[in-house]
Specification:
P-loop_NTPase, alpha/beta, 258 residues, 38% helix, single chain, Rossmann fold
Length: 258
Amino acid sequence: METQTTAESGFGFLVRLASRPSFLNIETKLFPNGLLAKQTVEICGDTSTGKTLLLSQLMTKCLLPPAVEGLGIRILLLNTDHHFLVSKLFKLMSSILKNNWGKSDAEAEKIIRESLSNLTIINCYDYSQLMVSLHSLDLMLLKEEAVSLMMIDSISSFYWVHRERNGLCTLDHYVKNLLRIIQKHTFQANVPLIYTKSCETGWSVRERINCTTEATPESINHRITLESNDRGFNCRVETSSEQENFHYRITDDGVHWL
């Protein structure tokens, strides 16, 4: 009996990994061809360019159910910068449900609470806690109620502390070392990774994280750079084969592409 149970569990595990949800319509402006399993997305920008807001907006799309054109998936968020607010996520969801779908306050709140039950937040307050969480990803990504997307806000939070303790290194070199650990787990679990990162000035091209077509360790598949200037906000989206620029604005309802 025990052998049969183990075999069934193993089969179910393989089926679960092979049946990850589609990310085709997660955000067509940023990902016209969708987001594939195992792919890695970097959202880079200076302070007040909307990195966390954009991450929350993508999270909203993923958490809301298919009945309101969401993906209805489970998300694991490593929260290190502590700029992410559940109250802001609640507000983004509420705006979509009321303005786009005509939901009442009670209807919207019910949908939001059900959606938020699919969000797991791990708060990390120092580098040691981050490393413990990263080395425990197998347990979090491969458990029975499978996580379908991993997010980090922000992967660069403890860079300066690490640099003071371990000597000079570029931010991208630091991020590559973390990606080596993270992607070992996300690749195995067949889930995409989206993370935010502060921009580094004076970086070396040699150290820059490569954009690749395939899911490759220590590399990314999409780089989204958010910038601000006197004329407003600009977004640059890069892949291994192309680059596109467009403007955006930030409101209480999120990031809006122009």
